[in-house]
Amino acid sequence: VIFMGDTNLSDFDAPDLPLITRLIEGGGLTETCVALGCAEPGRIDRILWRDGGGLTLTPTSWAVEPAFWDEDGVPMSDHDAISAGFEWVFEG
Q: Measured between alpha carbons, how far is 66 from 50 in angstroms, rounded to an integer?
């Protein structure tokens, strides 16, 4: 499972923390940024994952995407997009 989205939940906002914790722990997910020790943990955009069904996912990269602009040079969101790379192994 790879779950990506703008959660609008911040690790630094006390009311949000139980909600994001419930999502991550309840879904058995791991946050890519945290796993890789990225420089910007706690962003509201998140890429979470978990292994399953013989598939092992290993995050290899996490980045803020500065090139996420339209053809006129206008940002396509109110905050920067993020990306992650994964390696995978299927043993099933």
A: 27
pLDDT tens-digit readout, 66-77 = 778 888 988 888
pTM of the complete model:
0.88
Report the side by side order of strands in the sheet with 30-31: 2-6, 45-49, 30-31
21 φ, ψ (degrees, to nearest 5): -65, -40
| Sole residue written with tokens 């997910």 | 29
In SS3 terms, 11-40 reads as: CCCCCCHHHHHHHHHHCCCEEHHHHHCCCC
